[in-house]
Amino acid sequence: MADRNEKLLLGLVKKIGNNICADCRSPDPEWASYNIGIFICTRCAGIHRGLGAHISKVKHLKLDRWEDSQVEKVSSIGNLAAAARYELNVPASYRKPMENDPHTLLEQWIRAKYEREEFCHPEKQPPPYMSGFMEGFLMKRGRTDSKYKPRRFKKEPKAVLRISELSISFCPVKMCNQTSFQISYLADLNPTSTSESSKSARNSVGSGGNPATFHLSSVTTRHLYLYHEDPKIAVDWYMAIRCSRLRRMQIAFPAASEEELVRWLPKDFAREGWLWKTGPRPSDSYKKRWFTLDNRKLMYHEDPMDASPKGEIFVGEKGDSFFVKEGRAQGISPAGAGPGGVGGFPFSLGTPQRTFHLSSTSAEDRDAWIKVLQTVIDTPLNPRDNALAARLCRKRASGSMNLFNSR
Ligand SMILES: [Zn+2]
Questions:
Q1: 271-397, what's its fold?
Q2: Which regions form coiled coils (predicted)?
Q3: Is the pLDDT of residue 199 over 60?
Q4: 294 alpha carbon – ligand 1 mean position (Å)
Q5: Calpha distance 249→261 (Å, rounded)
Q6: Interval between CA 79 and ligand 1 midpoint (Å)
Q7: I want to staple 307 with a disulfide (CB 3.0 to 4.6 A). Which of 139, 143, 275, 404 is the partner?
Q8: How does the average pLDDT of the chain come out, rounded?
């Protein structure tokens, strides 16, 4: 009988719908929850086990012994019918996690589906999933002292945060915290500010600095590093911000479909890591910088957890003379002289204003950066990108914004 049941199960798991994990959509599930009636991957099976057998009873398709009645149960339900029930009312802005997404997102998705049954009973959903409104305490990293302190947040932290321009990345690796997220937004700086950036800008202007290279922004990107120790509350915040963002976009782009707008919701950073960067002159030295690619904005920082980038590069589309290519342009000094072994795997990122000369410490890293930047360049600008670019260009034209500063 055991052989017969195993054969039946291995036949069932090949069916459309059952051939990908019911929760994270990774291919070829090896486990099943026989009371829920779904096929799942090893990672999700571990989370199901954590829910307790009163919620989900999991077995390995090959290694465990199956009763006839258990096989009949999964056969009578399956992943498609279970999704029709447990995912009936997933809000459009809710991020359904995929195979390699952060553990907290996946665990809360599975708990929301089967433990709290939020999506078959919408009245059980936390109101922020649909209203986008939320308030409460979050732990916020200090801009200068790097200590986390509790801060009270409403949906829009302080008045400076424009939800229509913020991006949010859940659980970036550098934060080393499973319930953290990073919010990045364009902040209008006080023009009377005596910060280092405005001082250096005045100096540059005073000494006849090239307006394309001096560092000045009355608008700059700010990073907020936040967490809540309760994984559910951290995810609720994240989903509330996504919902709020979707609502704003629906007002700004009434002609776009909801499906399209959901695709424009902020994604986790496409790539982050150390690169070496040199200036356009042969005498310029290489500096180690932490690069973050956030949608079409490539930012670089001295430290991964800086409150603001030192520079920001808007990555446009191919037809507008943007390019990325392997190798070093003529006249640019080779990497290798800097402290700690400068990366010897150069590549260039071209923009209409200037070309950025970068270097990785390995061929794999360089190739990964080129690939991810090429994908951005190959993607046509969408109306949201255009709106952002227009805002940035307006700022640049008025001399109060420099997206291509060179520090
Ligand atoms: Zn899975």
A1: PH-domain like (2.30.29)
A2: none
A3: no
A4: 26
A5: 7
A6: 12
A7: 143
A8: 84
Task: Find the length of the chain.
Answer: 407
Q: What is the pLDDT of residues 366-405, one digit of tens each?
A: 999 999 999 999 999 987 787 767 666 554 444 333 444 4
How many CB atoms neighbour CB 228 within 10 A? 22
Full-prediction pTM beyond 0.85? Answer: no
Ligand 1 center from residue 405 Cα (angstroms)? 43
Whether 2-124 and 271-397 share one fold: the answer is no
**Fold designation for 2-124:** Annexin V; domain 1 (1.10.220)
Class of domain 141-253: mainly beta
| 298 beta partners | 293, 313
User: Ligand 1 center to residue 268 CA distance, Å?
Assistant: 19
> What SS3 class is residue 184?
strand
> What is the Rg, in whole angstroms, of the alpha carbon atoms belonging to the chain?
25
In the numeric block, which tokens belong to residue 179? 């319930």
- CA atoms of 380 and 101, how far apart (whole Å): 26
Cα-to-centroid distance, 228 and ligand 1 (Å): 25
* Segments making up each domain of the chain, as ranges: 2-124, 141-253, 271-397
Q: How far apart are the first and last CA of the chain?
A: 71
Structure tokens at 219: 């608008």
Tell how far the Cα of 50 is from the centroid of ligand 1, in angstroms.
14
* Cα 41 to middle of ligand 1, angstroms: 4
| Ligand 1 mean position, distance from CA 45 (Å) | 7
All residues at 6 or more sequence positions from 159 whose CB lies less than 8 Å from its CB, including other chains: none
Burial of 236 (0-12, 13-18, 19+ CB in 10 A): buried
Strand ranges in 228-310 using DSSP code E only, listed in sequence order: 271-278, 287-294, 297-301
Q: What is the pLDDT of residue 157?
A: 46
CA–centroid distance, 99 to ligand 1, in Å, is 6
Span from the CA of 25 to the centroid of ligand 1 (angstroms): 6
- For residue 40, the cross-strand partners are 31
Q: If we measure between CA atoms, which residue out of 356, 344, 360 comes closest to residue 310?
A: 356
Summarised one tens digit per residue, pLDDT across range 285-322 is 889 999 999 999 999 999 999 999 999 898 999 888 89
Task: Specify the amino acid at residue 28.
Answer: D
CA-closest candidate to residue 279, choices 392, 405, 370, 366 = 405
Calculate how far, in angstroms, residue 278's C-alpha sits from the geometric centre of ligand 1: 43
